[in-house]
Amino acid sequence: MSLGPHLFLALLEGTVTALVLALTALGLSLVFGVMRIVNIAHGEFFMLGAVLAWWFGSLVGGSALVGFLVALIAGPLVVGAIAVASDWLILRRIDYDPESTIVATIGLLYIIQQIVLTFYGGDAKSVEAPIYFRVSFPWFGYSGYKLIVAGMSALLLIGTWIVISRTQMGLYMRATQQDEEMAQAYGVPVRRVYALVFGFGAALAAAAGVLVVPMQQAHYLMGLDPLLLSFIVVIIGGLGNLRGTLVAAFVIGITDGVISVFFSPTLAKILATLLVALVLVIRPGGLFGDEEA
Amino acid sequence: MSRRISGKVLVIHLGIIALLLVAQFFLSPYHHINVARIMIFAAFALGYNVLLGYTGLLSLGHAMFFAAGVYGAGLPVFYLQFNALEAFATGVVSSFLLGVTFGLIVIRTSGVSFLIVTLMFAQAAFLTTLYFNEITLGDQGIVISQVLPPLEVGGAVLEFSDPDVKYNAALLLFGITFLVCIAIVYSPIGRVFVAIRENEARTRMLGYNTYKYKLVSLVISATISGAAGAMYALLFSYIGSTFASIEYSIFPLLWTLVGGMGTLIGPVLGTGLMFYLVDIASGLTESHLIVVGIVLVVLVLYFPKGLMGTIREKWLPWLP
Known about the structure:
- The complex is a heterodimer.
- In chain A, about 75% of the residues lie in helices and about 0% in strands.
- In chain A, a hairpin with a 4-residue loop joins strand 1 and strand 2.
- Chain B has one domain.
- At the A-B interface, helix 4, helix 9 and helix 11 of A face helix 5, helix 11 and helix 13 of B.
């Protein structure tokens, strides 16, 4: 292949990555924005989604499509419930103190990871794609499922945007984000909003996990990568800034795709990581964030 | 806290070192080697605690300093036939230099940003060890016991495969680190560190250049961590990218929190306790790291001050 098709492939891969990444990072960003906490266990919710997709798939048996649809609905619900429970059992009790929360979520990371290791095992397991077809371009064929993943992610992103901008819950969330005390004074049930946001953020990551698993196998250690990538995205986009998160997911996803295709995926990650760390040092609010964030 | 080191404090801390010195004659071979490991990790935790416990900066990237020590010592042994002393020196210098470079960049950030930046840089360092796997052999790592020459000190020949050499070298590192940390805590610099931890804005207002002090604290912390890494590589003769992985950033945090941050005995106690807890758990189940998770959550919920922090608060307020 010559340069053109290569670049096209890189952009295509980049777009799929970007949309899935946006979904994962949006959850992290939402939690940071509304609750002002950093959730180190976010990647584990992604991993749980992937593992549940495998589990539901083998539970339902028969058609891969049915298993996938069940997983896509039930997976995020289960993971969301787990997140809400951890919010009530742990985070609430330490009053969302930033540093304690970080330590607690590191603890949560290990607990989730090791429980999955116990019940699911240490092997990577693959899940059959629910739909299999190839889209043929003049230069290469491309997995149709990947395009469906991109489409589903886009739909979920739009859905999230509608929830945030058009529903009462979204209004509560935005009010809490702006000023927690004032929101409470106006009757917003802030504690419940926190629990729901934490659950919702986890559910988004889990949905991304379910979508991704037919493309990469489910493994109990797969959570670290999405966590770090989400950090990168959320930082460049501005901590807690949802629109910035989307833009950043595209910037990172596509750059990652291009560097991975032309050089090496590891190099792409090293460069992205260093770049972001530098961004954070120079502009603590992120590239698209406001300075005081 | 008084400014002079009191007799009581000195007796207790020297007592711990003496206890470890005597203990080697009574420990079974299994515990003998474990305690040697624990002492090195305790030095790592002590270094970490300078930054977290006494300066109030939570880092999630200390694996890179430990790994800088590991690689800084191990690679020259493997490729350049350095002896143990030279290798230890290059290990310490590498982590010192990494500490300075990294510190100059990240000390500007604080709180949550500091934590994320340290995590990201450490991850970049980890990936770098994988990327250059022609040199580092990445995951697989390098065993250096074949190439590391025995060390001759005053006529005695020290073989690093000898458990007694391991134990006493580890004890030497631990003892020196422990004493250095006591000296730091009681020194004027140490008091500025604590002032920064308690209230950075006020410290700055009093005329201290907090940026400079935080940098110094980070460099001390990095160098001690690197010394531990270098010693670990030499004594246990293995260098690999595991030491740069996120696990090795979380462990010193865990050890310090268990023992009580901002105490000197705490990180030592925490390291020993967690080492055996994980060791016992690994005999019971494959998922033994769940202990780490449970301990972290329980600590945050019920014992935010850790073991020694609680003891100091209740009974021994004079402990450093």
